[in-house]
Amino acid sequence: MIEYQTQRSFTFNQLADDCLRAANVWKDIGLRVGQTFGICGHNSYEYMVCFLSGIIIGAIAIPMRGTDTIDEFKRTLKEREISLIALSGEKLRQIKSHDFYDNIMGIVFGSESDHQNETHFWVYENLISSTRAISEDLIHEPKDVMQDICLILESSGTTGLPKGCMFSHYNLVSLVTIGSLVYNRTAEDIVSGHSYMAHISGVNQLIMSINNGSQLVLHPVFNLNTLFEAIEKHGITALSAPASVYMTLLKAGTEYDISTLRKLICGGAPLPKGCAQQIAHKYPHFEDFRQSYGMTEMTILIAFGHYGRRDYESVGDPTPGNRIKVIDCTTGEVLPPNCNGEICVTGPTLFKGI
Question: What is the rounded CA–CA span in Å between residue 41 and residue 49?
């Protein structure tokens, strides 16, 4: 993994060792099986470690964005009952003057993490360097892998405030299993890690890169110019991005050399009709360019364009194990092909509820 902004690089062995060390840190400061814990900050190696290590000991991760406002941060703490949290030095500085600060404790990381005098936050670098890795026999084994929750992510849903979507260990294992069948990525790929880890697409990029052994180029926040710059500098080969990124490439192009890009997935919103074909024509080195359909509640995976079919206007087939039907919104009856209606989907990646 490479942090694009700092150019720090880490191996998978380092990640595994630091996660096992951080798991011991979480246990020492009181994190227990089934307890929620927060992670807040911009994308970084430390964010990854704190996120994965809490799940390793059976706790429930609540990732948050570094760009969250104080009100959003406070609401998440209250609604998810978070008392233990890992956060960036920048976020810690923002919250210190607020009344809820005294109700939380945990780990502080990042370039502004020089907080040696904090009474209830400990500096990540000091903890990791002075703590042994947890023994593998203490890694949590869920009693019910299908039902035990390990992650809660926010989804905007269709009405009201964002909702917390609960995911089980089985959901994440299913993401890895199914994703490995549809993404067409290998250990030779270099993947753009520009999505927030507090979003299902960011979790997806992280977990799939670990599973495939792909190098992940991690961006602290999403920025279109630095995305294209990183593609040129690091030779990124695989990109999953919203339609807006591809429309920018179609209409304006980029001054950067993006000729290394080979494997591309468009999601989040459909491309306007005809645009996908135009993009494929303009950038013939996009050898695997597909549209997809997903949502947070399905751990992102619902349908993917079929590799090699080059049907650019379709979101493709249901992902393995998932089932889709289209029903009449009034009667609830299942509709035949080529009819408009409400999409219903279920399968192993279906979340456990709000």
Answer: 13
Helical packing angle, 12-28 and 45-56, nearest 10°: 60
Asked if 288 contacts 309 with a C-beta cutoff of 8 angstroms, the reply is no
Angle at 283 between CA 277 and CA 288, to 5 degrees: 70
In whole angstroms, what is the distance from residue 24 CA to residue 18 CA? 10
299-308 pLDDT, tens digit per residue, is 999 999 988 7
pLDDT digits (tens, 9 = 90+) for 305-339: 988 788 888 999 999 999 999 999 999 999 999 99
Distance CA 4, CA 152 (A): 27
Total number of domains in the chain: 2
- CA-to-CA distance for 267 and 243, rounded, in angstroms? 6
Q: Quote the domain boundaries for residue 109.
A: 8-141
Write the CATH number for 282. 3.40.50.980
Residue 266, helix vs strand vs coil: strand
Q: 349 lies in a domain?
A: no
Q: What is this structure's pTM?
A: 0.94
